[in-house]
Each structure stands twice: as C-alpha cells, then as structure tokens.
Amino acid sequence: MRQYQLEYTATNAYASPVWGAYLKFLIHPYAALGAQINSPVFSINVDGDWWISNARQKEVSEIYYKSTNKFNTLNIAYSVKIYVPDLNPFERLSLPVGQEINVLKSNEWIIDNYKFIHLTKSRPKAYLSPEESANFLWLNEGNLLDKIIHLRDQVHGSMEFITGVTTTSTLASEVIKLRQGVCQDFTHLFLGLLRNNGVAARYTSGYLHQSEAIRGASQLHAWVECHIPEMGWIGIDPTNKLLCDHNYVKICHGYDYDDCLPVSGVVNSSANQQSSEHQVHVQQIQ
Questions:
Q1: Does a structural domain hold residue 216?
Q2: In this structure, how many other beta carbons lie within 10 angstroms of the beta carbon of residue 238?
Q3: CA distances from 142 to 96, 148, 160, 273 (A)
Q4: Cα–Cα distance for residue pair 101/240, rounded to 1 Å
Q5: Are residues 94 and 219 in the same domain?
Q6: 9-38: pLDDT as tens digits
Q7: Which residues contact 83 (CB under 8 A, 6 or more apart)?
Q8: Are residues 120 and 234 in the same domain?
C-alpha cells in the first residue's frame, strides 16, 4: 500500500469584478481498486458554501462551490491523503488470441463498450479520419494489449512534449500535424487512433507521482484507459510511454477532455478576459 499527499492549487483572475459563482471541481480522487481516501481539505479565499457530491457515480466525487460575494481573484487550495494498493499492470493475464478475438467481435462486448469505441465529428477533440490514422501502423497479429502498446510507442515517438503550443481546445486532427503538445494532446491523438481500430478507449484524468523523468506531473495528468477482454480497463500513458500503476491516482474518465474538466461552472461578471493558473504536487509519504 502506497500513501500519497495530493495537493491542487489554482488561481482564477478576472478583468472585471465577479458578483457570484457556481463552480464544480473534478479534483477529488476516484475511490476504486481498493484506494482509501482520507477527509479532504478544501479552501477558497472568497466566502461561500462547498460540498462533495457522488451524484455522477459512486466512485466519482465532484466538489461544488457557490458564492454570492464579489471578487476579482479566486484562489483555490485542495489537499487529501490517499492510500493506493501496489499495482503491477503486467500481473493481469489476457485471453489467448483466438478467444480474445471472439469476445471483441461479440455483439455483447460491442454494445457494452460502444460509447468509447464510436468516433463522431460532433466530439472533434479525439476525432481522426481513417486517412489520418493511416499514418500509424496497427499490428495485424498478437493480442490486443501488444497492439495497443505498439501504437502507444508510435504516438510517444512521434510527439514532442512542449507546453504553450496547444490549448484545451486543440483537436486531435491538429495535433497529428503539429506533432507537439502536452499530455492532453498525446491522449486525444491516441484515443482517435485506438477508436479507429475498434478499441474501447476513454480519456482519464488524475494525479501522477512526480519524478524528474516524468512528463506532466506538475499539472493534472491525462492518459487513456483501454478495455481488454478478461483484463478489464487498463491505463496506458502515451505521454510517458508507460502502463499505469499505483503512481497514477485517477480522478475521473470520459469520452474526451470535456468530460473531465477540472473546473467548470458559471460566474456572473462582465469580464471578457480571464486568466487561470493551476499547480499539482504529489508527495509519497510511505
């Protein structure tokens, strides 16, 4: 069992006064796979009410904040301790190739996972055309995990991790041309390629234990979860060329980034300019 201290801080500054806000934060860890979460500490510089809701799913917790006070700057600080069981992703055994193919072709599996297989232009952040996907090789032999890892390595090798080149609105079809970006861009590109090859894949956000060689640890991190018969949902990190283990603390998952926004909601203001700064720190306690 690993124990981590997770800390998230953010500052939102507005060009004109805000006279009320109703916000939702997706920053609380996902209580799954045996994780144990201590009572969180959430503080904000503007008086208001906040509460935690499990309305979306039993495992996913959303923090809500409501205030009718005026402010120009909103400072958010959140911390929590979490115990995470040791996880070795290589311990899970996949089905023999023949059995796996039969499951993947079954109507039951396709119906259960269709939401995360289907590509649609109405959700363009992870959309790639078959022609764009053709630039990456999908193996015809081997089991599904081997094929996914081979594709992950291609994405990792084709991209440079550079901040400031893309935004949260950048599309996978733009990333495939830029070949630069951050973890969100690696993830959207990987999602589009996987779904074009019939893989059930979902966008996942969370905290990542820091080290000098790890990309994206100072912000909320993004990776992909793929559904593999018998093994279930397996975390794959194209940004760092890794399979996800206990160093990845999940917050939530969805179709793309829009389902995992760390902060969303409404503010009452005439401001047409806003700046946001976010910082994450993950410390292993034991």
A1: yes
A2: 29
A3: 9, 10, 28, 51
A4: 28
A5: yes
A6: 999 999 889 999 999 999 999 877 778 888
A7: 1, 2, 3, 35, 36, 37
A8: yes
Nearest alpha carbon to residue 232 among 113, 150, 126: 113
Domain assignment present for 226: yes
Whether 96 is in a domain gets the answer yes
pLDDT digits (tens, 9 = 90+) for 86-95: 888 778 788 9
Give 286's pLDDT tier (boundaries 50, 70, 90).
low
Domain around 41: 2-85+261-284
Do 93 and 81 lie in one domain? The reply is no
The two tokens of residue 146 are 């081997």
- Tokens linked to 71: 């402010």
The CATH number of the domain holding residue 22 is 2.60.40.2250
Among residues 185, 174, 183, which one has the least CA distance to residue 132? 174
pTM (two decimals): 0.93
CA distance 152 to 201: 12
Dist CA 281 CA 59 (whole Å)? 22
